[in-house]
Amino acid sequence: MPLLTARQRMGAAALILAASAVLSRLMGLVRDKVISWQFGAGGEADLYFAAFVVPDIINYLLAGGFMSITIIPLLAARFREDEADAWRFFSCVFFWMLVSSLALTGAGMIWAEQLARLTAPGFSPEALGRLAFFMRIILPAQVFFLAGACFTALLLLRRQFSVPALTPLIYNGAIIAMGLLLPLLPGAGALFGKGGHLGMTGYCVGVTLGAGLGAFLLPFQAARAGGLRLSFVWRHPLILRFLVIALPLMLGQTVVMLDEQFLRVFGSLVGDGAVSLLNYGRRIAQVPVGLVGQAAAVASYPFLVRLLADGEDERFAATLRTALAASLGLIIPCALWMMAASWPILGIIFQGGRFGPEETLAALPLTRLMLAPAPFWIFYMVLVRAYYAHGDTLTPALTGTVVTIVCIPLYYFLAVPLGAWAVAALSGLGVSAYVVWLIVIWARRHGGAAFAGLAPLTARCLACSVPAAGIAWLVADAALARLTIAPFFAACVALTASGAAFALTGVPLARLVAPELLDMAARPVRQRLARHKDRPTAPGDACQNDKDT
User: Fold this and answer.
1) What counts of helices (H) and strands (E) characterise the chain?
2) Which domain holds residue 384?
3) Residue 275 belongs to a domain
4) In a domain, 230, yes or no
5) Among 54, 447, 539, 544, which residue has the fewest nearby CB atoms (within 10 Å)?
6) pTM here?
7) Count of domains in the chain?
8) Nearest to 345 by CA among 504, 494, 482
9) By the 8 A CB rule, do 274 and 423 touch?
10) What is each CA distance from 338 to 31, 62, 66, 284, 309, in whole angstroms?
11) Helices (H), 182-229
12) Does the residue 58 lie in any domain?
């Protein structure tokens, strides 16, 4: 008898990946804290963030982030039918991905100067030369990411979740370590620096090192330990089906995927420091999106696929509705409180060193503007997986690309002249419009059952969260304005007071107007306690518990 049921294994997998997402986000904030402390906003920091535009686009072009969606269904079916042929198919995908990533990365390194002028048109000629230097260091990381994605997909197929969960931790850890340690190595300045000055070169080296270790070497070793069989195969009948699934993801440059790149490209036209400030604000705004969205997407997608395969359309719609409702119920109060507490949050995470109070206040409106569309980001992360469960990668890709094409001239002619705040606002409007369009298309094709009751739920959630956020905002600002202690400790006190004010106001209001929100928050705890209470005690359990203790 298996120790865990299929549902429990799925829950354990979601827990591992969600824990990894939490730790990765925290390490990402630590990384950005170190960068902001050393370099502030502008100058080297702008160049570092802008250096990711071309590498990230290469990753999007080869659908590296969607490898599990594209290859796992085909590979799983092939392993059930013919294991030897499944390995040939896997080898074919791997070597084409390796060759494609090497070709695009090599082209990017050769034409780095031209690409720098294209992706950061607002930088000076000297800054563009430095940007090209950073790009050449970072670009090889994409080979490791894209080739390693094949091994990661294989591990996920085998339900080996620990190694994929470690990948982002090793990646962020390497960036921080190399950024801090490279300047201490003898001769590093002469080898990597400009006139002996390393600047952010160590962080760029850490990107490629972290990708090599975490995204490629570790999954490769785990796959090899599990019996990996690679052979030089360049043709396979399933490649055409793989391309049919993957091409919309490769060619469709949606506004969601390019959102961060738009902030970097058009931020470079706004002025010095805009790229960094927009990046710092987006980092804060994406924390609740990443945590809530990752958990909801990971937990719901396997159920959606299974229900669709079993022909249970009604339960599919109900499961999708439950995931969307739970996500909205969590993200709306979280985003509103973070908007209210953005000042102390920025003070704790970024302020210090070369990132002073002026930079904090400059990043404040950008952070709040980018937190506003958080519910649409969460809605997208869950809804797009419902499309993928139906095998439809074309609709999200096509509609997202159309919105991207519409947004580009709006960024250039409207947002850039108005400043960084307009760039941040247009970012949120573009994503929101894209998600609304996906909702309309889904409702026309599959009906509105998946969205039943979500509008009233959102209204009730806002009714209890908006007043609580308003009071939390006043409390946070008053604490920071009146406390005379060190800025970091003042921010900690203000954040604590703001959270307490939000809870003391929001929870009683939720009991009155939206008790289901409190029920959704408490339900996982009650279910876990019930399972623990009802679980029979097997012989040897006490000994095992003693051993664990």
Assistant:
1) 26, 0
2) 260-525
3) yes
4) no
5) 539
6) 0.81
7) 1
8) 494
9) yes
10) 20, 35, 30, 9, 40
11) 188-192, 201-210, 218-225
12) no
